[in-house]
Design goal:
heterodimer, A: 293 residues, mainly alpha, 0% strand, elongated, disordered N terminus, disordered C terminus, B: 315 residues, MetI-like fold, 2 domains, 13 helices, membrane (chain A), BP-dependent_transpt_permease (chain A), MetI-like_sf (chain A), protein transport (chain A)
Chain lengths: 293, 315
Amino acid sequence: MSDTSQGFEAEQRPKRRSRFQATLVRDRKAQAGLLVLLLFVIGAVFAPLLAPFDPNEMTLEMMSGLTWTHPLGTDDLGRDLLSRILYGTRVSLFIGISTVGIALVIGIALGLVAGYFGGWIDLVIMRYIDLQWAFPNFIIAVYLVAVFGTGLLNVIVALSLAFVDDFARVARSMTLSLREEQYVDAARTLGFSKARTLFIHILPNAVAPIIVQATVSVSYAILGEASLSFLGLGVDAYTPTWGLILADGRGFITQAWWLGVFPGLAIMLVVLAINFVGDWLRDALDVRQAVTD
Amino acid sequence: MASYMLRRFIGSIIVMWAVATLVFFMLRFVPGDPIAAMLADAGGPDEIEAMKRNLGLDRSLFVQYAIWFQNMLHGDLGNSIYGSRVAVTAVLAEAIPRTLSLSLLAFVIALAIALPAGILSATRRNTATDTTVSLLAFLGLSMPDFWLAILLIIVFAANLQWLPAIGYAPLSDGFWPWFSHLILPSIAIGTAFSAIIARMIRSSLLEVLKADYMRTARAKGLTPWMIMFGHALPNAMIPVITVIGIAFALLISGAVVVENVFAIKGLGRVLIEGILNRDYPVVQGAVLVVSAIFVFSNLIVDLLYGVIDPRIRLN
């Protein structure tokens, strides 16, 4: 039995890898996306080394245009825009990834349980998920921030809870279809525990659509965080985040266009790169089901 | 059809009831007690007592809920507790037409872009046109709406001075003042929406164009124009309408953010100002109205779907 399954896996693995490679070689957008993401991750990790100034250091060169000292100019308080954007990358990527991580764990747990057990458990969980599904994620996040208050942790909690329904729905629909598979039946017949059946037999086979959903969600979470920060409902007034930098610069865009252009460009590039990669993953993992929000 | 409509309508009412209930209890159960924070902002002990009585906070939670619910059904959402203390319904009544004008105009602009883009992309599949449309759609999806709003202000209001940068003019001031204030925010809100719809129209049309009845239509000598608008598009639009329903969320969320860039006091600005001022009656009211707009526009889309696709209607 174990020999057969190893043989099967050994046969599958190179196939899957070559499908990744084959689709990536053809997909210029995905290559560009991965490169841009890599650059942003490097920027985030090495921000203290790469940033020419402290992001909150005020200088007398207020609203200076693009110079060698300040390649992206400075803001109304003389702070270096490039340094602020570099540090902002850390917040955006951290919130984007941690939010989706939390939403994924909670959502998948709910979806697996609902789909596998069915009955009243499914009814209760899915009624709630359907209710949340009826509303835009961003509106839910705004309302949760209104209730919990602003700050890094609260923004992460609000955004995570807002995205839970997306993962629960994907996990449940996958569980419903996998529950009827023969190998799941076999696991049940062999007397494996429900937890083992769920996590060892069902979950790994539901991974592909979940990866695609997670990728798309990271881009939505980054946009969501930026929007919250922009509205004054974000991390705090001192941590430079892309949304906050744009909000701070908003009053001066007629005199200093760079304050309105570069932070938004950073958001757009990261989100665009993630969308390109997400599209490739959908193709490579052969996920046909449309993931929309 | 009548029973389907009735079922969907009752379903929407239940969703609204659940939302109203959640909104009420969440504000009272969360750690940090926003009501206490709100009371602390109210002033001295006498004012706090008066406000507690005014809000009915001296009674049990369920009595409070019953009273709040009853008042809500009578169209009374309480008074703002910040600044002029006007009735929440008055604030909302002023805001709703602004947000609706904005969302509807954004919707029209988005469709006006998405329809031709999607059709061009599908009929000229894998050509330069298709690639360009696809790239533009990706850009539209990735651009934060508030950033696009800022870019539009820099270009069309600050530099070219073609359109006003901020504010709103009611329709009673004339068509052009109303329209000119709404063009830039509508484009900012509608862009992501139009990108999603264009992509959906493309993939749906490509499916339909493969169908047997398309070959029949060509075989009986119909012009390409008649094939597209008489046969292909009506069928391709069925799945698109569902996506329009889902993506409508984007317009509402977009309005919430973009209204704040253009200083248009619609529901979004009322909601955010309410949150920043800890004006919870206003926040509650704005959340309810935004939810109602969303739930009932989804209902309309569902019913429309039933009208267009007989399979839904007959099931």
